[in-house]
Specification:
single chain; Ubiquitin-like (UB roll); two-stranded antiparallel sheet; alpha+beta
Length: 194
């Protein structure tokens, strides 16, 4: 039984050691990298569907008048540092843009729009868009972080800051203070005449 195994092994290995192929042909087969180039070309088509970090976002400053009508919108692009808009930069933007047409406005809402779909979820999103919500209302002024986004949707990530017109004129609202002495008033008593 061992002899049969040895003869099979010898017949199978004899094909590999034949001198029919030259060393140049082996080198060409080993170094043939056209298949790698073909894969890279095919991958370029799908680069738009891979997630990447956000380096810029759009900020919309929406101004609302006393009649609850939007009367102006400003749009700016701002750079993010590691997908984050830090608290100090946000405060600076809020102070800088709260005055429009010499009218002060107060902040009523900060809304973050961040498309954080996974590439695998894209097909189900296209079928049922109602099942996904990408708006996040910020209740505090803190740093805002954007999650990595599919490259195709990066331009849609944004921040909306809603300002309401403030026509509140300052009136003298100082409370009047009445100063009274601490001594008690004496009550005068009258006697009845007998």
């Amino acid at each position: 039984m061992n002899e049969a195994y040895a003869s099979d092994y010898a017949s199978n290995t004899s094909d590999y050691g034949s001198d029919d192929t030259s060393d140049c042909e082996l080198d060409n087969n080993i170094l043939d990298d056209t298949w790698i180039n073909n894969i890279e070309k095919e991958e370029k088509i799908y680069n738009r569907f891979y997630k990447e970090s956000n380096d810029k976002i759009n900020i919309f400053f929406v101004y609302i008048n006393n009649s609850n009508e939007i009367y102006h919108i400003k749009k700016n692009k701002i750079n993010l540092d590691n997908n984050v808009l830090d608290k100090l930069a946000l405060i600076y933007l809020l102070k800088k843009y709260r005055i429009y047409n010499n009218t002060k406005h107060k902040i009523i809402s900060i809304i973050q729009y961040n498309i954080d779909l996974e590439p695998e979820e894209l097909a189900s999103y296209l079928k049922n868009q109602e099942d996904y919500n990408f708006l996040y209302i910020k209740s505090k002024i803190i740093e805002i972080k954007w999650d990595d986004t599919i490259n195709l949707f990066k331009d849609l990530n944004s921040l909306y800051i809603l300002f309401y017109e403030s026509n509140h004129e300052k009136k003298n609202e100082t409370k009047k203070v009445f100063i009274r002495s601490k001594r008690k008033l004496k009550r005068t008593t009258t006697r009845k005449k007998a």
